[in-house]
Amino acid sequence: MDTLRDLWDRILERVSTLVNSQSYQTWFKPTRLVSYEGGRIVIEGPNPFFVDWLAEHHLDKIEFAASETLGETVKVEFVSPDSPRRVTAPERSVQRSVIVTDPVTLPNKVHLNARYTFDEFVVGGGNRLAHAAALAVSEKPARAYNPLFIYGGVGLGKTHLIQAIGHRVLKEHPTLRISYVSAESFMNELIHAIRKGVTLEFKERYRNIDILMIDDIQFLAGKESTQEEFFFTFNALHDANKQIVVTSDRPPKEIPTLQERLTSRFEWGLITDIQPPDLETRIAILRKKVENEHIPIPEDVISLIAENVKSNIRELEGSLIRILACSSLACQEINVDMASNVLRDIVKGSPKKKLDIRAIQRAAAQHFDIPVDSLKAKTRVSRVVLARQVAIFLSRELTDLSLVQIGKQFGGRDHSTILHACKKIERAAEEDAALRRKLQTIRSELSS
């Protein structure tokens, strides 16, 4: 009879054919099977961060591989040694085909991720308007921005915001009936209703609610019958002064084969986007993650991740979890060298010349005719301040040092001061031709 280890090895062998080698080594090798009973398996990962990520991004692959290997439909749960909490899958008929952690089951069977609240959402320049609009909708449904259409790339926080609306409405307006569903689930439910001859019940369900939240509406592209039904559902709700919230990976006019009348309806309200997070927001997101999990991560490691992972929040969190997983498995202290090695596929390609920061400081001091040591001092003399900011700006541009590391070379200044200096010079150089020439002159001297 197979042991749990044998069973897990067989399941992992199948998983390895579904993911690339790096994903397999990072996310599956550190796991173990702790129980298998009654068509349910429990998988253990090294820490809560790790299992949350594994559940959210690889649940479908594990369920598929386990069901195929064990010859029955298998449900999956995740645990970690640090937390007795189990991470489980949501009801598929109600929710997106992704994991929902700590599902909150409500009378109207809405499943929301417990972490996707406004309190947990980090606001930055790229998402400020979308956040404000979502907050307004949650406080005054159908009175502000109806419909609300939020679009943006993968992993930028659209699902977080739309579910945050649900959480806030349930708290502030508990009598309201809400429905949160993916466009794919909406279509599947419609198909099921047609096959079973219960389309009237389907229409009643979606047209007698107070708030309809549809995720990933772009899925309806090319689905004429589903678009037709959604159009009439939209009209019924809007005419009854009910709130509609929609997310998409692109604006309405860019969704191929989306009916013009639907595009027009979306334009009745507010269409707002979410942009990739800027550096300050990426740092804030990582800080919030490590604070929530009470995991000690050095500031320079946070800066390293934030400066090199720029695409989306999902990749940002994934990079952090890779570092945590490797630290846990290899019993390594987390520092910049260790993190750089773990993220070498991301960090390795820097085109920057390896310059000594002291050479940059000397060049800046010479051009501004000030002592080099004054760049590290606390003086606020305008000439020294400008020289210091120029040296900091060039240090970030011409070296691979993190903000924290640069700050240490300028009198122990913190990363926010370094970031402020870089932005100030960047903005000033756009308008000041003399400053642009000076920067270019210093660059040329340093590269010669």
UniProtKB/TrEMBL annotation:
Region (Domain III, AAA+ region): 111-327
Pfam families assigned to the protein according to its UniProt record, in alphabetical order: Bac_DnaA, Bac_DnaA_C, DnaA_N
Region (Domain IV, binds dsDNA): 328-448
Binding site for ATP: 155, 157-159
Keywords assigned by UniProt, alphabetized: ATP-binding, Cytoplasm, DNA replication, DNA-binding, Lipid-binding, Nucleotide-binding
Gene Ontology CC: cytoplasm; plasma membrane
GO molecular function annotation: ATP binding; DNA replication origin binding; lipid binding
Chief site of localization: cytoplasm
Tagged with keyword Cytoplasm: yes
AAA+ ATPase domain mapped to chain residues: 144-272
Function: Plays an essential role in the initiation and regulation of chromosomal replication. ATP-DnaA binds to the origin of replication (oriC) to initiate formation of the DNA replication initiation complex once per cell cycle. Binds the DnaA box (a 9 base pair repeat at the origin) and separates the double-stranded (ds)DNA. Forms a right-handed helical filament on oriC DNA; dsDNA binds to the exterior of the filament while single-stranded (ss)DNA is stabiized in the filament's interior.
Domain description: Domain I is involved in oligomerization and binding regulators, domain II is flexibile and of varying length in different bacteria, domain III forms the AAA+ region, while domain IV binds dsDNA.
HAMAP family recorded: DnaA_bact
Family assignment from sequence similarity: Belongs to the DnaA family.
Protein's UniProt name: Chromosomal replication initiator protein DnaA
Organism: Eiseniibacteriota bacterium
